[in-house]
Specification:
Number of strands: 5
Largest sheet: 3 strands, mixed
Radius of gyration: 21 Å
Order of helices and strands: HEHEEEEHHH
Helix content: 40-55%
Shape: globular
Distance between the termini: 50 Å
Structural class: alpha/beta
């Protein structure tokens, strides 16, 4: 009887070691994925063309370009037939930006001009960072504590591009 118990324990140990070895050799680590599953069904997302003064328009366009320049399937583009919108307005809320899904390929993003104007020391970067972050939600990314555009404690005045962690998560999701 004791040899059977030892045999089971040894087999369990070998199985655990094999799984651990597989994870270490493949680099697979599901703990690093931060998906919220409430984003869009595909990574190619269109939105109605927006028209703001250049103070807003330029950094907003840069946010699209920053995601589109990654090695991920992310593709944000303007389309006059889209139901998706990005709105800049002064809201009484305390947030900088918010994302809401309105369908499999539809989103509403709001940027809060009141809080952004109040807190930005580098206005263009702050706007770009906020919109890149909201686009991350559209790509099914959730908040996290990594070096990431999805980190709510990031420096919005300097971090304006998706980080390697963000791109990796998008690639894994799509």
């Amino acid at each position: 009887m004791p040899s059977k118990v030892l045999g089971r324990t040894a087999r369990r140990g070998l199985a655990t070691a094999a799984v651990l070895g597989l994870i270490l050799t493949t680099g697979a680590n599901p703990a690093f994925a931060h998906w919220n599953g409430t984003g869009q069904d595909i990574a190619s997302i269109h939105m109605l063309p927006y028209s703001y003064n250049s103070t807003w328009q330029t950094p907003m366009n840069k946010a699209l370009a920053n995601w589109n320049a990654t090695s991920s399937p992310a593709n944000f583009y303007k389309n006059s037939n889209s139901g998706s919108t990005i709105t800049v307005k002064s809201y009484s809320n305390t947030w900088y930006g918010t994302y809401q899904r309105c369908g499999g390929m539809c989103m509403y993003i709001k940027l809060n001009s009141r809080t952004i104007n109040r807190d930005a020391s580098n206005f263009a970067n702050f706007v770009t960072s906020t919109l890149v972050h909201e686009f991350g939600h559209a790509l099914n990314l959730a908040h996290n504590s990594s070096t990431s555009i999805m980190n709510t404690s990031r420096n919005r005045n300097s971090m304006t591009k998706p980080q390697a962690h963000d791109v990796s998560d998008v690639n894994a999701y799509y």
